[in-house]
Design brief:
It is built from 5 helices and 3 strands; from the N terminus they run αβααβαβα. The protein is an alpha/beta fold. The protein has a 3-stranded parallel β-sheet. α4 links the parallel β2 and β3.
Length: 82
């Protein structure tokens, strides 16, 4: 359960959590965005997120909705001007 996991990180003293949308990476789109946004909103942790972020609209969406950092992987390699 991602919410319980985030809560346990916070309880242990973490201030950041790194999360990856593996479904999003496979499907090349934001699949589990609601989970990540809820963790960012409710956990008290800063969320660093990767997976399925393929364009600036996705980057903007996440940063404007509570995600603290986004990680670009294959999108940056395939489009160096990103």
């Amino acid at each position: 359960n991602p919410y319980d996991t985030a809560a346990s990180f916070q309880k242990a003293g973490a201030t950041w959590i790194h999360m990856v949308d593996l479904d999003g990476a496979k499907d090349a789109k934001m699949v589990n965005k609601d989970i990540f946004l809820r963790v960012a909103k409710e956990s008290g942790l800063k969320v660093e997120l990767g997976g399925g972020i393929r364009d600036m609209d996705a980057v903007r969406f996440y940063l404007e909705n509570g995600i603290s950092r986004v990680i670009l992987g294959s999108a940056a390699v395939k489009n160096p001007a990103f």
